[in-house]
Amino acid sequence: MPAVFTVVALVLAELGIFAEERYGVPDSLNFIYSGGETGARTLLGAVAGSAIGVAGTVFSITIAALSYAAGNMGPRLLDNFTRDRGNQVVLGTFIATFAFTLYSLRAVQGGEENPFVPHYNVTGAMLLALACIAALVYYLAHVTASINMTRVITLLRDDLQDSLEKATHQREDSQGKRQPPPENYWQNGEVLRAPRGGYLQLVDVEELIKLADREDVALRLHVKPGDYVFTNSVIVTAIPHLPDGVMDTLTLGRTRLQGQDLEYSVRQLTEVASRALSPGVNDPVTAIDVIDRFGDALCRLHDRSWPDGVHFSGDHLRLVRPVTTFGGLLDSMFHMIRQYGKGSPAVTIRMLEVLRSIAACMDDPARHAELRRHAEMIYADALENTPNDNDRADLKDRYEGVLNIVQRPASQ
């Protein structure tokens, strides 16, 4: 957006100069700047210097403040700052003002022969200077609000919910679902090894299925988006032969990306909670906020199911790929928080309360079993690190609350 603003500013500056050279300035436009060459140079130079000076100072200080805050909130804060449209508009306004005034300044000509003052452009520079003041006031208030921890957590929660919506689908009858072949089915298959290392960022599933269907083969993908692929490690097994072009459907990169990598959004929230529970920060309230967001996201899955990663074309197996399961999602959400927060009764009690609420939202026995597994780990770790009898009693009460739901028959 700053680049677009700059290009538009340069085009407007050229149009202003062209219009004045051809048509001049009508007497009816008495609000247009009417000063001379010296005043125009001074005004344009002051606006240009102020715009770029204020922008450089304000944004450099902001980056320093954000870098410090990102130590507690995680890298999502900096990513949000660069993607935020409001910040882009403000930066674009300052840079466009500098480009507009600098381009206009070169057109100012003095002397007795062919003097020229771009009155339209000088007036435009004055208006842009006022726009910069308004943008600066907005920016200071906007950045202050964007560093708020609750806002960052809410943004991460929204990213997680979007990823969950894309990764799951409305629950359907499980009857008729086809099972993947046994492990020994792939023993004599031809393998594809990774030509380089990196994170698996994207998988073109549809293209993989079309390729397997065209070559009449079955493919097994050993990694899922978000996994780190090591050089020369096996990433695909094919039966009966390995077709060409499989690597073209896989995207490897240096970093993990949001989208197909469901656990990436979870990890960012988990990092916020883990930093909050570190001894140097000691902010259990933030960790509890993250736990609440996890509970909200999981309760939205009450009528949704996970893909099984098995793809057929007619009666022919075409692709088997690993997918994130409900249990794996719980592990990503709660393992690190449990490990870092086991000595904080407020955090462990809230985790058990959230697990109880999640269990009450769902009726799937398999999911209840995963919730019970995590409740048992949380309760066991918390008992060892909670010496106060009243806190231990509260923990037991919340733990039994989870068990009362996960052990209840589905008909109840």
Automatic annotation (TrEMBL):
Organism source for this protein?
A: Deinococcus cavernae
Q: What name is this protein filed under? A: DUF2254 domain-containing protein
| Domain of life from the UniProt record | Bacteria
Q: Any transmembrane segments, and where?
A: 43-68, 89-108, 120-141
- Residue span of region Disordered: 166-186
- Ranges of compositional bias, category Basic and acidic residues: 166-176
The UniProt entry, under InterPro entries, shows: DUF2254_membrane
Q: Which UniProt keywords apply?
A: Membrane, Transmembrane, Transmembrane helix
